[in-house]
Amino acid sequence: MLVQEKNRIQAPGNKFLKAHIQEIIDVLKEKLAVIEELIRERIAGNKIYKLKKQELMTIPGVGEKTAHALLALAPELGTTNRRQIASLMGLAPHTQQSGKKTWYAKTSGGRRSMRPMLPWLLERVTHRLKHFMRVSSTRVRNLS
What we know:
Order of helices and strands: HHHHHEEEEH
Number of domains: 2
Number of strands: 4
Shape: extended
Strand content: 5-15%
Radius of gyration: 21 Å
Number of helices: 6
Structural class: mainly alpha
């Protein structure tokens, strides 16, 4: 909703509504801040989630918001193997079979709420890893 309102405020012909739309944006930001604080408190109060959050945040590119989203949408992280996680996220191929007929395997199912976040997460992690690799290779070159 916040993105919709930000786009709406920039739309041509909405000059007379700008103040009202800005009020809505401010209220949404306040509510979002309250929700984020509640999530922080909830994770801080649970020893297991707190440890999982700390472990997730050691991954380059994974910050507090990403760790919170992963904990909320995939609490199984750390307790299941990579194949099960891939299947839960809808990334594992599943064969389509009916009697003697077998079709190509396709990715399907999984948690739909998590799938849109995965490309963004992958982009952030690879960006951070590329930076890390660049810095590390520079240090190695400087040593020799």
